[in-house]
Amino acid sequence: MEVSNRTIVNGIKKRVGKAKGNWAEEIPMVLWSYRTTPQTSTKETPFSLTYGTEAMLPMEVAVNTLRAANKDEEGNAQDLRINLDIQEEKRENFGMRQAAYKHATERYYNQRVKEKSVLSW
Questions:
Q1: Are the CB atoms for 98 and 44 separated by under 8 Å?
Q2: Residue 31 in contact with residue 8, Cβ under 8 Å?
Q3: Which helix (H) or strand (E) holds 18?
Q4: How many CA atoms lie within 13 A of 82 on its CB side?
């Protein structure tokens, strides 16, 4: 959670720059960016972990990309239902991947701490 908050705060700082009074207006765009960016630990976006599918970016709709032009409302609704049916299994897999990532990060950190303590003796 701390890493997520830090990422969001840094995103707001980058978007606002010197005009610090407008930070509240930037929150929706920063959150959208965070939710549609794949995370290192899961290799998936928070949006896809929540809804079972990737978000269609506003630019895809505005520019009328191939994905937006070929959308099928009825087929899309059916695909969403299928994705939601298998979502729990996907979340379990992502949880295992996240646990493995956490374990690797802890091992790396502990190794670095051990090296520093050996050097300080």
A1: no
A2: yes
A3: none
A4: 6
Virtual torsion, Cα 71, 76, 77, 80, nearest 10 deg: -140
Coil/strand/helix, residue 3: helix
Contact between 82 and 51 (Cβ < 8 Å): no
Q: What integer pLDDT is reported at residue 18 of this predicted model? A: 64
Residue appearing with tokens 């992502």: 94
**Residue count of the chain:** 121
CA distances from 106 to 31, 93, 95, 100 (A): 28, 20, 16, 10
What is the Cα Rg of the chain in Å? 20
Summarised one tens digit per residue, pLDDT across range 42-51 is 788 888 888 8
